[in-house]
Specification:
The complex is a heterodimer of chains A (113) and B (111). With 113 residues, chain A is mainly β. Chain A contains no helices and twelve strands. In chain A, strand 6 and strand 7 form a beta hairpin. Chain B has no helices and twelve strands. In chain B, the strands form three sheets. In chain B, strands 2, 5, 6, 10, 11 and 12 form a six-stranded mixed sheet that branches. In chain B, strands 3-9-8-7 form a four-stranded antiparallel sheet, with no helix packed on it. The radius of gyration of chain B is 13 Å and the shape is globular. Classes of the chains: A mainly beta (113), B mainly beta (111).
């Protein structure tokens, strides 16, 4: 089975801190995604990547950046965390181009104080 | 633009009741349609999918039929169990980057 692993399940950070959320997949998927999940809003796409060193903005990229130095790893970076970035962050991957099935990690719940 | 609208929750049912969660979509072209489920404390996982009109996706007793004429993909199950308690997301995908999720419907099943 494809496995998507998010390194931190729960994080508590202070306003202004730099935050790294790490995601690793083990099935050689081309595409990787970062979503945030908020009650009543469903999932909103922050950034995605089709290939190593490649990134594209999603619907809500402001305040975030990403890094994909290796195919299996996709990192989400909050340069200066703010309280409105308190959320559940979900990483996902899919095989290749086209509307393929997404495989999700368990999520990282971030609280910014 | 493309969008997904699903019925608001929470939905509370008794065990063995019939379940319907409504989902309608707006899209250009012919997207694939998905239902994902999120159990407590977990990420989302695919429940079922359909890739073209009149296709029926099914899994674990759940079914949904891709209805192009009504732009709908309603989720149904004939007899729910306590273990079906979760949040259900309808989604459409027209490309790898354009996978759009509904807001989710929380389902609780009473024993």
């Amino acid at each position: 089975d494809v496995k998507v692993t998010q390194s931190s399940r729960y994080l508590v950070k202070r306003t202004g801190e730099k935050v790294f959320l790490e995601c690793v997949q083990d099935m050689d998927h081309e595409n990787m995604f970062w979503y945030r999940q908020d009650p009543g809003l469903g999932l909103r796409l922050i950034y995605f990547s089709y290939d190593v060193k490649m990134k594209e903005k999603g619907d809500i990229p402001e305040g975030y950046s990403v890094s994909r130095e290796k195919k299996e790893r996709f990192s989400l970076i909050l340069e200066s965390a703010s309280t409105n970035q308190t959320s559940m962050y979900l990483c996902a991957s899919s095989l290749n181009s086209g509307a393929n099935v997404l495989t999700f990690g368990a999520g990282s719940r971030l609280t910014v104080l | 633009g493309d969008s997904v609208t699903q019925m608001e929750g929470p939905v509370t049912l008794s065990e063995e009741a019939f379940l319907t969660i409504n989902c309608t979509y707006t899209a250009t072209g012919y997207p694939s349609l998905f239902w994902y489920v999120q159990y407590p404390g977990e990420g989302l996982q695919l429940l079922l999918k359909a890739t073209k009109a009149d296709d029926k996706g099914s899994n674990k007793g759940f079914e949904a039929t891709y209805r192009k004429e009504t732009t709908s993909f309603h989720l149904e199950k004939g007899s729910v169990q306590v273990s079906d308690s979760a949040v259900y997301f309808c989604a459409l995908g027209s490309s790898a980057s354009k996978i759009i999720f509904g807001s989710g419907t929380r389902l609780s099943i009473r024993p």
